[in-house]
Amino acid sequence: MFNTSHNLNKKAEISVIFVDNNFKFKNQLNFFSKNELKQINLFKNDFDKSNLLKLDLLENNKKHKIVIYKIKDDLKEYDYQKAGGLVYAEISKFKSANILFDTDLSIKNNKYKFFSNFLLGLLSRSYNFKNYKLKKDNQKNILQFLSILSSDKANLHKSFNHAKNIYSGIEETRNLVTLPANILNPKKFVDEIFKLKKIGISVEILNEKKMKSLGMNAILGVGQGSSNESYIAIMKWNGNKSSKEKPLAFVGKGVCFDTGGISLKPASHMEDMKYDMGGAGTVTGLMKVLALRKAKVNAVGVVGLVENMADGNAQRPGDVVISYSGQSIEVLNTDAEGRLVLADAIAYTEDRFKPKFIINLATLTGAIVVSLGNEYAGLFSNDDNLAKQIHETSLKDNEKAWRFPLHKNYDKLMDSKIADLQNINYSGGAGSITAAQFLQRFIRNKTPWAHLDIAGMAWTKKDTEVIPEGATGYGVKLLNRLVEEHYEK
Question: Which residue out of 236, 265, 296, 444 is catalytically annotated?
């Protein structure tokens, strides 16, 4: 990660300025010489072709790279994030850079929106996992120093801190999802969650002995083939201590590695199953954001942390377990394990915390990837208002979610002949919907509930405008904005 400063660096190798449609900008702190200003203005007509100009200005026989970005007042917030990502792609090739935010733009009444989203996009695009390469690539992440300047220092500091807090949660999620499973086992995940106590989150851990006493046999069955113990981790943020309102609840699937169990997955691409804990990663990152920005809301994050391994003690296809909710489940396929983890976590969360809503996230089904690819998460809900809030909010940060139907006829497909329900639909089809119908049975007190199937969204195999290839951190921005815009007072 680069170092940041709010002091002008006159020796910077590259500088970024912003202009409006009329090519107006301020020569902030007299940074540009008359000769450089003259050279810049020669390119005025080139903006018909592109929103971005890259210029090599010659001054005293020394080249100074200039990036000029044309910005409009009618852009949406994600457009500003994209601009930040695009600019980072340019400045990251140099060791030092300036971003000069002072302009004559018509966005001056929306500076906070522009600054915070631009900086969030820039930070998001800058993500780089501290990998395990012993031979370091010196050319990677060459940017070391970045100066960010504006005469509106109050707005700049406020927006930078806001962007940095959100990015810290995204970074947390991406790091967790990227870690290999031999390092991020359930116990190590618990250790990472304990670190959040430093920022004011209270943490409670249910170990296997406690879960067994509570009757959480669904999650315990998933983890019984692993040499690593299973856990449920509970994170609580009380940002509105004076309020007696019910907390918001977020539940995440945390299968740290998924072999499929006895219903073994094919070997090809099984390594991707290290990120089958993406839902738990998002919940953890979200809770970090809420604490860092001191959100005026009470929230609880609950994550089920297990490994689904195949050994002599592993759960078998055909086994029946009694879940925490008291419902019996016939396990017809041990690779449909995420819903078993969530079944106990959701029912426990509803019983104990009686929340205003429950939103669960999980890399749950391959069927959702067939349906939506890598553009949308699947959204399922028993509450139209909550579903509408999530869908509309999801469009603002490009963490899109598309709603699928739930119906009693799909529900019948999950009925078992020997237990209350079975964990897969043997009739075929509607794989993502029937998985959601399974989860819905563990909401027993009419709590508003939404399920986000993020199997196609937790990882990207190509760079996007604001996300480098790898873990995306999907859902942190979406849920943080949902809380901020709809539930904080």
Answer: 265
User: Helices in 18-98 by DSSP H: which ranges?
Assistant: 34-41, 77-91
Whether residue 142 sits in one domain with residue 246: no
Residue that finishes a domain, picked among 115, 150, 185: 150
- E strands, 95-223, where? 96-100, 145-149, 202-206
Catalytic residue among 65, 82, 253, 339: 339
Q: How many CA within 13 A on the CB side of residue 56?
A: 3
CATH, residue 318: 3.40.630.10
Cα separation, 127 vs 142, in Å, equals 13
pLDDT, tens digit only, all 489 positions of the chain: 789 998 889 889 998 988 877 777 778 778 888 888 887 887 776 666 666 667 666 555 567 788 888 777 677 899 999 999 999 999 999 999 999 987 655 565 578 888 999 999 999 999 999 888 887 665 556 899 999 998 888 889 999 999 999 999 999 999 999 999 999 999 999 999 999 999 999 999 999 999 999 999 999 999 999 999 999 999 999 999 877 889 999 999 999 999 999 999 999 999 999 999 999 999 999 999 999 999 999 999 999 999 999 999 999 999 999 999 999 999 999 999 999 999 999 999 999 999 999 999 999 999 999 999 999 999 999 999 999 999 999 999 999 999 999 999 999 999 999 999 999 998 889 999 999 999 999 999 999 999 999 999 999 999 999 999 999 999 999 999 999 999 997
**Does 143 lie in the same domain as 221?**
no
What pTM value is reported for the model? Answer: 0.95
Cα–Cα dist 335/264, whole Å? 7
- Catalytic site residue 265? yes
Torsion of CA 272, 276, 279, 284, to 10 degrees: -90
403 classed as catalytic: no
- Do residue 189 and residue 109 come from a single domain? no
**Last residue of one domain, picked from the residues 92, 115, 150:** 150
Q: What is the CA radius of gyration of the chain?
A: 25
